[in-house]
Amino acid sequence: MRFFSRRIHKAASTDLDTVEISEQRGVRYLHLGNATIQSAMRIQSPNTLELSYTQAMTAFLLFGIPASSALMVGLGGGSLAKFFYHQYPHLKLCAVDIHPEVIRAAYQFFELPRDESRLQVIQQDAAQFMPDQRGWDAILLDGYDAHFQVPQLASETFYRDCAQAMGARGVLSVNLWGSDPRFTVYRERMERVFDGRVLTLPAEKRGNVIAFAFNETPDAVSWNRLHQHAMELEMLHRMPFTRFLQHLRPQLRWMGID
E-assigned strands of 1-135? Predict the structure, then answer.
């Protein structure tokens, strides 16, 4: 994408990345100081997940999670928060982001609902926020600045804080960059914290790899039942859950699924 096709907003910050909003061919984008796309929204379909990596981050739905709550770390344009808000109205939702201009942009340009009763948005450093949290069913971690994954949000301490912030059956969904030299380090940290209960799923867009880390092993079901559930999710959300499942299949043996 050229920088920018049509820039519609720019908000500078003294100590954080500059937030910029652009549009191209009916899609609105959020950037942090450069041309890298941090979030995207199709203007005619604002509550769907436009980017393939955000779709892949929801693949934990294959295993029946979450039951009642989900926490987003890194708000961006609010794509995941909006998806769960509109598709799963029973969920308690919270999003935490350190950047006040990102939060303002999500409300102003990306149609993030203003509904504190169901979707709480908190401006805070997630590394400081997480240690006090408990009882979340799912945590979705997308912790990047303009260039790299934020180190404090990829430490073994932070992954351990996430594990403690979730209930026994909780799952952590993490957006990683496959070409990051520290990708293997991050995966090994999750493996240690979650006792090997980690799956990885390449997103359709080259580069993004989603890791799913489980506090407990999900209930074993037959492959046929799991595939049926994937087809149901695919019809409901119009996202490629059967393809997600096929990618994950070689890794499911430790779940009792063969």
Answer: 7-11, 19-24, 27-32, 39-42, 69-73, 92-97, 119-123
